[in-house]
Design a protein that fits this description.
Structural class: mainly alpha
Order of helices and strands: HHEEHHH
Strand content: under 5%
Strand order of the largest sheet: 1-2
Oligomer: single chain
Radius of gyration: 19 Å
């Protein structure tokens, strides 16, 4: 009985969600031989694209609502950030902007009595949800690419 609940919990772990996302993006990367063919091809019907709302500001962000090429680039960039870490991401930002970025290690929390466990679970849940959506987006892009180049039935 314990193994059943353990395997269910492992299936829903953040580590497995990240692995599913990385695998989906690696599959997309191996399938898409000519990324330039993705330009100006919509990923989905405009009706089915929904905004991602920011919890803090309430503003809508359309991160992956462009053409298939922009989605391809964003998904690969997120995969690289997961695989190589935040340090590399911060260094890339500094190179792009040309100025020293914000040093996150120096930020001190004002509220020492925050419920860190609650905050952790909130962000963990959000990260898991975003990774699941990004994984579906990578799989959708891979399948659409196959349809566009005429190999939609391959590998099924």
């Amino acid at each position: 009985m314990m193994q059943i609940s353990d395997s269910h919990n492992q299936k829903n772990s953040l580590f497995n969600a990240m692995n599913r996302f990385i695998s989906a993006v690696n599959n997309m990367d191996q399938t898409v031989m000519v990324p330039s063919l993705l330009r100006d091809v919509p990923l989905e019907n405009e009706k089915s694209i929904s905004p991602i709302r920011s919890a803090g500001t309430g503003s809508a962000t359309y991160l992956c609502s462009g053409d298939m090429y922009s989605n391809y680039v964003v998904l690969k960039s997120i995969r690289n950030d997961i695989e190589w870490g935040v340090l590399q991401m911060d260094e890339r930002r500094k190179e792009k902007v040309g100025i020293a970025g914000l040093d996150l290690s120096r930020i001190e929390t004002d509220g020492e009595d925050e419920d860190l466990e609650k905050l952790f679970h909130f962000h963990l849940n959000g990260l898991h949800t975003v990774l699941s959506k990004l994984t579906r987006k990578a799989n959708t892009l891979t399948n659409r690419y196959k349809q566009e180049i005429g190999i939609g039935a391959w590998g099924h």
